[in-house]
Amino acid sequence: MAELLRQCFVMQGRNFDKAGEISGEIKVILRDLGINAAYTRRVVIVAFEAEMNVVMYAQSGTLTFSVTEDAIDLIIEDVGPGIPDINLALQEGYSTASDEMREMGFGFGMGLPNMKKNSDEFRIESVVGKGTTVYATVRHHEDA
Amino acid sequence: MTLQAVSEILQCEVLCGEDQLFIDIQTVVASDGMSEILAFAKSDELMITGLTNIQSIRTADIAGVSAVIYCRGKRPDENVIEFAKRKNIPVLVTKMVMFDICGILYARGLKGVS
To answer: Which of A61, A74, A116, B24 is a Cys-bridge partner for A136, taking CB atoms 3.0 to 4.6 Å apart?
Structure first.
């Protein structure tokens, strides 16, 4: 499938002021491409939760998104602590967040489940002590 | 119910978006947890929160809510209000606590999202 657009963004860990900025940019890009609001919404929720995770837990990361005619792919790769038990991390309510993260309004154990729920394909690869890569594919649904 | 009516009922101060008080509000999402807002908002809800940082407006933008009301009299910094203006999201503040706000709006016919 021909790629219509590919863009890569760099994220900095602990930079809470900027956290979420990339997702806002992606929202504008997708709107300008004429992609419908419900589809865009699912993509940017995945991107936003991913950004927050990188900023909260990792040292740095990249978010690459590519648009084809039938799907939008997001790859979020970070240099960070990694996730020891991915299945546990995907359970709603499970969280390793600090009080500081919770004061920011995040870290209630819903980020990864939210990302999975809004994706059609979702996969996490992680090496403890090195980092985590999340692959998410979001497709347009007629009823969305 | 219009945002103007909500504003009067909750005795709000409008911090930005005075020109959008005509918008129609039918559903409400209320939480201090941003992922909870993202999980349950479907679009065009009124968002009630006590979290006043920049992420509250970023969440509002990503979730596609139509307006934000800060409860407990908590006021955001000026840069947060400026960001909401750029995103075209009306922002109001009330001294009421979240429990009372939800009870009052529910009694007036507004519903939550589930």
So the answer is: A74
What ipTM does this complex have? 0.91
A104 chain-B contacts, CB cut-off 8 A: 34, 51, 53, 55
Angle, helices A21-32/B54-63, rounded to nearest 10 degrees: 30
DSSP at A109: S
User: Can you give the pTM of this predicted structure?
Assistant: 0.94
- The residue ranges of every structural domain in chain A are 3-139
- Domain A3-139 superfamily per CATH: Histidine kinase-like ATPase, C-terminal domain (3.30.565.10)
Interface A-B, measured as beta-carbon pairs within 8 A, has a size of 69
Picking from B36, B56, B61, the nearest residue to A108 by CB comes out as: B36
User: What are the pLDDT digits (tens) for B79-91?
Assistant: 999 999 999 999 9
Say yes or no for a CB contact (<8 Å) between A16 and B38: no
